[in-house]
Structure formats: structure tokens, C-alpha cells
Amino acid sequence: MKKPSLAIAGLTACSGCQLTLFNCEDELREILERFEVAYFPMGQSDPDPKRHYDVALVEGAVSTPGDLSALFHFRNASRLLIAFGTCALHGGIAAQKNRSTPRPALLREVYGDRAPQLESFPPAPFKNFVSVDAAITGCPPEKGDLLRLLGAVLAGTLPAFPSYPVCLEC
Ligand code: SF4
């Protein structure tokens, strides 16, 4: 039987959600036996970005034109698009500044006169731009939730996860 192809990628994010896959140390071999990891820049030296995927796990907020273009790509190229983690689901850390100081002032505060000219807009979650098929919340998501999602994909279903902003204890 053909293995489902898997993409794991990030937009504006810290990559912590993607690292959850590497935290599945005991299960990693079985995951690799059951899925074809087709696109995973964090773990591949030469990923092919032009493929179609059965499942795309994408982390991060949308905060640049490049992010938006990548999100549209993964939406169009994937049978199932999963919002992977709090940044993808709620905007996360990047979106926290939306309610405070405007970005140009923040850039000036951090970089002074050498503030870079960045093409960006207020960081936002995926739902502002595309439909998603499922979401795993958490910052980063729990390993068990990722395994449950992958198991459900193999079974032809999708689990519903409770939505919380950062962690279950918060
Ligand atoms: Fe990093 Fe948390 Fe955002 Fe995941 S949800 S990319 S761990 S800040």
C-alpha cells in the first residue's frame, strides 16, 4: 500500500512545533515506515517544494507575503492541511504585538537607525486566509497529540483536539 506523503513546514515561527516530530523518539521509526516524509526542510537536505502531499503540518503565523504565498501553496498542494500549534491556530507569540506598539516603532526600538525595511503585516492565524482540515494546539503541541493525529490520518479520520492557547495547565 502506498504510504501517505507528509509535509512539515513553518511560517513565522520558532520551529518548536516541528521539533515535536523529533521528540517522538520511540515512535519515529514507525512513523517513517508508515509515512513518506516528502517535505521537511528541518530534517532534509534537499526537500522538493513542488509536490502534492496527503498531509501538511504547518506551524507559524502568517506575517509576510512569503508566508501567505507558502500557506496558499500548502493549502493547494495538500489533501489535508493541519494548523500545527498555537501560532498557526491563534497567531501565537508573533501576533501578541498586534495589540501594542506598531511594528515600525518596535523595529526602531530594537534596531535603532539600522531598522530593516521589512515587508510585513500584522501576524495572523491561518483561518484568516484559508480553510484548515484540523488543528493541533499547544506551544509546542504535545507529542501524544501529534501521534494521535498521525494515527487518525492512517485510519482515515481526524481527531478533534481541545483548543487552548499555550498549554493545558494555562
Ligand atoms: Fe514556537 Fe510555540 Fe509557535 Fe510552535 S506554537 S512555532 S513552539 S512559538
From TrEMBL:
Entry keywords, A to Z: Oxidoreductase, Periplasm
Keyword Oxidoreductase: yes
Domain NADH:ubiquinone oxidoreductase-like 20kDa subunit: 14-151
Secreted recorded as keyword: no
Subcellular location: Periplasm
Entry GO MF terms: iron-sulfur cluster binding; oxidoreductase activity
Gene Ontology CC terms: periplasmic space
Protein name: Cytosolic NiFe-hydrogenase subunit delta
